[in-house]
């Protein structure tokens, strides 16, 4: 009984800051309210959410975010992990620390730096002017702003994925690589026929994690391009609630996003068990 007493602080924290807010959001999703007047509307907020242009647009944008973020994260994280894996254990530890620093940095601060780089008089447009090319308003449309947002997210988060992939790489029995080299396999064959297949569950896990993260991008959009053509579901919910004071519909959309995230998380757990 005594060991369970140590769980009480964590349990209280979970109830106050996780379980209770989720319950209140679910309850609020059945009401139409601006916290001045409140009216019970049942499932109407959920029905209206699927016809809300901003929410639908945010999910349409999520398709592009998912494709770009998942592919970009996998390519960058896997390439860097494979390069680091060839180094000694000492450099493995140093690389983990150095690459994780951007993850610890404030996303809003990193986004402001990139905002300056892609501004009308920033470095990118200055570079284009050297070739007599016109300046581009990078944040004026989704076609250019979404890839920039994705790039910023990848740069600030890939370190955590490198750690996951590198951990899986170092757990592979080195005897497998040695046996392949004795049999005459070159570095390319070892990578394509041994390393990548053994990393398949980890690659799937990283892909699922970045897929979940793609729908929850917030501070980067807030700092760079708070426009509907770049919204994610998370930012759409924020706008609907905090700017338009439609708290009931915002809560309903939060529940919808929660269910999607829970579904992806369950899938993630199944992938983790395969490792």
What CATH architecture label applies?
Orthogonal Bundle
Helix-strand makeup class: mainly alpha
Largest sheet: 2 strands, antiparallel
- Name the helicity range: over 70%
Oligomer: single chain
Mean pLDDT: 87
- The poorly predicted ranges are none
Strand line-up across the major sheet: 1-2
Number of domains: 1
Count of individual beta strands:
2
CATH superfamily: MetI-like
From the alpha carbons, calculate the radius of gyration and give it in angstroms: 23 Å
What fraction of residues sit in β-strands?
under 5%
Shape: globular
Any idea of the CATH class? Mainly Alpha
Kindly summarize this structure in a few lines.
The chain is an all-alpha fold and 275 residues long. It has helices at 2-5, 8-28, 44-49, 53-85, 89-104, 107-117, 123-129, 142-171, 174-182, 187-198, 200-214, 219-224, 233-243, 247-273; strands at residues 31-33, 38-40. The protein has one domain: Orthogonal Bundle (MetI-like fold).
Descriptive report:
The chain has 275 residues and is mostly helical. The chain has one domain (52-244): MetI-like fold. The protein is built from 14 helices and two strands; from the N terminus they run ααββαααααααααααα. A two-stranded antiparallel ribbon has the order 1-2. β1 (31-33) and β2 form a beta hairpin. α2 (8-28) crosses α14 (247-273), α6 (107-117) packs across α8 (142-171) and α8 (142-171) runs antiparallel to α11. The protein is globular. The protein starts with a helix and ends with a helix.
């Amino acid at each position: 009984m005594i060991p369970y007493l140590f769980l009480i602080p964590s349990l209280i924290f979970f109830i106050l800051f996780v379980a209770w807010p989720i319950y209140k959001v679910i309850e609020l999703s059945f009401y139409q309210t601006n916290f001045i007047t409140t009216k019970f509307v049942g499932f109407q907020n959920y029905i209206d959410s699927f016809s809300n242009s901003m929410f639908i647009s945010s999910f349409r944008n999520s398709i592009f975010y998912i494709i770009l973020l998942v592919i970009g994260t996998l390519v960058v994280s896997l390439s860097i992990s494979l390069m680091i894996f060839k180094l000694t254990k000492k450099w493995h530890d140093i690389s983990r620390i150095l690459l994780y620093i951007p993850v610890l940095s404030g996303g809003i601060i990193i986004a402001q730096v990139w905002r300056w780089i892609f501004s009308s008089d920033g470095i990118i447009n200055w570079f284009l002017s050297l070739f007599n090319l016109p300046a581009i308003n990078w944040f004026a449309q989704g076609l250019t702003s979404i890839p920039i947002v994705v790039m910023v997210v990848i740069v600030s988060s890939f370190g955590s994925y490198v750690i996951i992939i590198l951990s899986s790489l170092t757990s592979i029995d080195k005897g497998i690589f040695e046996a392949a080299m004795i049999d005459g396999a070159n570095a390319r064959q070892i990578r394509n026929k041994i390393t990548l297949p053994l990393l398949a569950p980890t690659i799937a896990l990283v892909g699922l994690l970045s897929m979940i993260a793609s729908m929850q991008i917030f501070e980067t959009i807030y700092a760079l391009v708070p426009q509907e053509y770049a919204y994610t579901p998370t930012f759409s919910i924020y706008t609907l609630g905090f700017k338009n004071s439609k708290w009931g519909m915002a809560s309903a959309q939060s529940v919808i996003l929660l269910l999607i995230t829970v579904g992806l998380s369950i899938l993630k757990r199944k992938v983790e068990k395969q490792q």
